[in-house]
Amino acid sequence: MPILSFGSQNINIITGKKTMTIRKIWKNPLKVGDRLYCYWNLVSKEKKKIFEAIITDIELIKYKDLKNNDKLAKKEGYKDSKEMVKEFKKMYLEKLNDDDVFQIIYFEKLDVEDWKGKKIDQKAMITQRADILFDSGKYDKSEVCYSAALKFDPDDIYLLNKKGDNLSRLGKFKEAVQCYDKALDIESDNEYILNNKAIALLNSGNVEEALKVSDEAIKVNNKNPVILYWRGFILEVLKKYEEALKIYDELLEIDNNNPEVWNARGNILNDMNEPERALESYDKALELCLDDTEIDASAQNRKGNALIDLGRYEEALKSFDKAIALDKGNIDFLLNKGVVLMELEKFEDALDCFTRVLTIKPDDQDASFFKDECLEYL
Predict the structure, then answer these.
(1) Is the torsion defined by CA of 27, 33, 34, 39 positive or negative?
(2) What is the pLDDT of residue 64?
(3) DSSP letters along 9-54, please?
(4) For 246, which of 5, 13, 39, 287 is 20 to 30 Å away at the CA?
(5) Biggest alpha carbon distance in the chain?
(6) Which distant-in-sequence residues (6+ apart) come within 8 Å of 363 by Cβ?
């Protein structure tokens, strides 16, 4: 019973796009007609049977002719032959010699009803694989898997929604909306899919349309915190600050311990030129942030901006220092700190900030302008 294991570079094996593999010849070589039992990551905790297949053809090739063959390496799922050889060295612990023989194995996947071994739910297996890849941020590969799973059931709401989310992560917002629309054709009152569609439209720059879709989601459930949060953000982008503030206040009535909402509320109040109230929101966000570094850094930065508006420069400087400590490479934080230092007439320190920005981003016009300003005072 020949068993083959495939790894993450062989993602196309699931879709049927890939029907060949390269293996060092076994003691009992594989031959045409052999039945293959194929697994995903056979020796790991992610082990999963993926299909059975029949070998349709075999070619022999020596390692010396294989190790620099980029074309075959790409067919096998690698970037190039160097990557393939590196993987082979992990796979075959003994030293590979030029005269070692490899088999190029061509096969045909069998319908699950024709399997001799244990049958599996292929749709469920592929979906699980897609979810793992999605959660680990491998969106190119997870999209392939979601598309493959949809071949088994094109009207699966979960898969259509997840594929839409996946496409959004890849910046393919128009295609994402198409996925959400297909799901909504089947289940028109799904508040989560409506909200995801609104987010995709927002990210594509179609903000007015995003608000219309958010309206539909709110009609389904006007107490869903996720929908309310994104509605507030959409309204903020449209500069409908009073409406956005009302939304964030509604969210805080539901849960007043959410630092993201307090931070968003502070942003709105800042945009409404109410720095004192904004400062109260940022302080509350920071109190609740705990270990959420991204929110913490953002809140510290926005708090610093609010303090600048109030003319409290020394306090603003402390906020920017905290933001930079959490996110050292953020040029916006460095720029803001430099501006405060200029207000405090600490031009040498300000110059250092702008120089650091230009080291990260040499063509930053703001940093270049402020640097020249500092030099005039030194």
Answers:
(1) positive
(2) 94
(3) GGTHHHHTS--EEEEEPPSS---TTPEEEEEESTTSTT-EEEEEEE
(4) 287
(5) 83
(6) none
Element housing 339 (H / E): helix 331-343
DSSP conformational letter for 96: P
Identify the DSSP state of 5. Answer: E
Mapped onto helix, strand or coil, the DSSP state of residue 108 is strand
Residue 137 Cα distances to 63, 134, 140, 160, 291, angstroms: 34, 5, 9, 18, 22
pTM for the whole structure: 0.70
Q: List the beta bridge partners of residue 52.
A: 37
The Cα-based distances of 278 to 164, 245, 253, 319, 343 in angstroms read 35, 11, 18, 14, 21
Question: Domains of the chain: which residue ranges?
Answer: 3-117, 329-378
| pLDDT, tens digit, 9 for 90 and up, residues 270-286 | 889 898 898 888 888 88
Q: Which class would CATH give 3-117? A: mainly beta
Q: How long, in residues, is the chain?
A: 378
Provide the token pair at 148.
């493959």
